[in-house]
Amino acid sequence: MIQFRLFGFPVRAEFWILVTAVFIGPRSEGLPRLLMWIASVLVGILIHELGHAFAARSYGLQPSIALHAFGGTTSWAAPVQLRRGPRAVVTAAGPAIGISVGLLLLLIRVAFGVPSSELIGALLAYLVWVNLGWGLLNLLPIFPLDGGQLVMVGAEAAAGARGRVLALGLSLFVLAAAAVWAILTRNLWLILMCGLLGWSNIAQFRLIQRGPTSASETPTEL
């Protein structure tokens, strides 16, 4: 595990994030491209989490960032919980900055016509996918992805505890569809992700049954 500070935020990077990056990376395309992919994953996740962290800091919180096997998490210890509006802003800030960076890099790649066959073109393609592609996927209404958390905040504002249950029901429905697709395509990584996210949904449902809760962290998963 490596620990450092970035823009004043404590960052903890676990070894397993490298294992994940290698596992889902272009291992058959040679070591240089694999290393560029790993760097793109680390940079992309950090950009996303920094979006959460800067937004949280603007509300007086002291966030920290963790990079782990399934992506990253921005969390903080606070004596009071954020209201729904600030929670939504902090949650949306991560994908917003990631998608913005991804779009900018995509425009640069298109403007200069850099082919993917060149190393710089491959690097740009990786960075676009990690920032833009994963940023958009992260907005799916699946808890605890950012999209699922935004749906949760809106549903909670509209219908309280019942709204949270409905948001989890939508999350599980989308997960079930993704799991079927993963099984049909034999995508082992996606099958594993669906299982872990499903477990997280069930755990959240149990928390709701025990009484009112509100998130003290904004997680994002690969």
Q: What would your notes on this structure say?
A:
The chain has helices spanning 16-24, 31-58, 84-112, 119-137, 146-184, 188-210, and strands at residues 2-6, 9-13, 63-68, 71-76, 217-221. With 222 residues, the chain is α+β, with helices and mostly antiparallel strands. The chain has a domain at 141-214. It has a five-stranded mixed sheet with strand order 1-2-3-4-5, with helices on one face. The longest helix has 39 residues, at 146-184. The chain is globular, with a radius of gyration of 18 Å. The two termini are 19 Å apart. Residues 213-222 have low confidence and may be disordered.
> How many beta-strand segments?
5
- Give me the strand/helix succession: EEHHEEHHHHE
Radius of gyration: 18 Å
The major pleated sheet works out as: 5 strands, mixed
The helix content is: 55-70%
Shape from CA axes? globular
* Class by SSE composition: alpha+beta
Q: How much strand?
A: 5-15%
Distance between the termini: 19 Å
Q: How many DSSP H or I helices? A: 6
Spans where pLDDT lies below 50 across 5 or more residues: 213-222
Could you report the average pLDDT, rounded to the nearest whole number?
90
How are the strands of the largest sheet arranged?
1-2-3-4-5
